[in-house]
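Moderator note: this is an archived Q&A kept for reference. The question asked for a predicted structure of one protein chain; the sequence and the answer are reproduced below.
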Amino acid sequence: MSEECAMFGFGKPDVKHEFIAALTVFFASSYMLFLNPQIMGEAGVEFEVAFVATVLSAIVGTLILAFIANKPYIIAPGITLTTFMSYSVVKAHGISWEIALAASLLVGIFLFAISISKIRVWFVEAIPMGLKYGIVAGIGLMLVFIGLVNAGLLVKGSGDVFIKLGDMRTPSVIIALFGLVVTWLLYARGVKAAFVLGILITTALSIAVSHTALSFDTQVDLGAALSKSAFSFDLDGLENVGALSIVIALFLVAFFDTIGSSTALLIRGNYVDKKKNIVGLDRIMITDSLATIFGAIVGAPASTVYTESASAYESGGRTGLTAVFICVLLLLSLFLLPFIRVVPLEATASVLIIVGLLMLESITRLNLKDKEEASASIFCVAAIGLTQSITYGIGITVILYVVLKLLLGKWKEVHPGMWITALLFTLNFLGVF
């Protein structure tokens, strides 16, 4: 097996640990297999059609990443991007999903062009290292928040209270807490399969308590679904509704969503050289743009690398072999949908919480003597974590950082890329596009 892995450029990975890492990442991000189709349904897309498009886009994107970037990540249609396309594009502009797909296709092509020209990497290099650590920690806080909500430990408040503690007597909350304790103990003891075992044990308990039965009424007709979604993008329709504002807005979200998540993952994997440059970012950017193009062709929203991929590192995943295994699991999901649906959100909540807490560690790397950078970085943690948006968290932070430098008379220290980013987000927040 090692010889075959070396032949495909994966080196000599630990196959067992790579497979365990793939299971962990797959289960941790499997919610998108159901959530994406549900959100796309708001834009008028049938669940089965959306499910097939999401899975196929994820398979191709992750497979491309395996061989181009050789990283243990999953690339799939992003929840943020799906939400943006469904609500901010389709519903807000009163246009069809097919027109939104056309916008996504153009964005993917443009992203590919600037990715191979290194422009995208130039923008990342413009961000101070302290802010990059803030992005990592912010995404960590976001994952913790999502995990706590999925576990039922945090619920929507009422009146002036935005969020409050969930009902600790609820069976799902008790199961989630049990899963968190079990998973944390396994991880603390150095068990490589800690996350997978935690998910499986918690799922088994959930099934036993709720008496969940498998339903095989949700088999997927692959051919029928593809016939409705493949090559359905409407470029003519996009031209008629005024493409520029829609494409620019979608581009901004797709551009910075991937920048934020991939930067965080690579820093978490210690892919930083002696000059503080992030190694391998360009290959992920290229992969992400190609996945977005393919996604538009099969009827899926724009793609991004999932931050849940950080769990691969904690499970022993290091190479693209993990991504290949993830592709196999995604392919099986087309035929094993009833089994995947049995895994409850509370079973994967513990993974998100633990991985998020581990990512928060990057905040300790801040240079607190640089007050502007340190304060902006800490603000970034709160902005990403509380807005639940990597893109807008980065945008608000960049504007704050640039304004601080300007007011302190240190505007010459600001990279040109930061000025451009601040301008773009300012125009976006003002509703120009």
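Archived answer notes: The two ends are 51 Å apart (CA to CA).
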